[in-house]
Amino acid sequence: MNKVTVTIYGREYTLLGENSEKEIKRIAAYVDGKMRDIAKMSGENGPTGLAVLTALNLSEDLFSARAAQKKAEDAEKKAKNEIVRLNTLLEQTEKRAEEKKAGEKATPVKDAAGPTPEDAEEIRALKERLNEYESNFFDLQMENMKLKSDMEKLKARK
Length: 158
Description:
The protein is mainly alpha-helical. The protein has three helices and two strands. It starts with a strand and ends with a helix.
């Protein structure tokens, strides 16, 4: 546990926290800056009123981050489901192409060169869509991680 003395809006506070001294000071500086910004915008100079307005402002930031995180998690879940669906569809298409190729080999009059151009095109298109969804899924995971980090930082400011 770290014990750090910080100054917020001209008043010293001794804080205890699990974060590093540097991180605690960074958070305190952020709160101090928010209070000063709100004081400029609102004209409120009393520390109690400013503290309430700052708490409301930071709470709004926290709730916005949570909503954005929820939205990213929902999009991530939707992308995962779509990837599963596309993988299944791709496997089915490849299986049909293999079965069609095997059936053509059994019939001597047909050319057993492999999947038809239509099958090959469908497989290519499905693989392309799958790659796109996997890329989008990765982007959503990265965004989700950033939002979680932002949310943790907001929580730590309280």
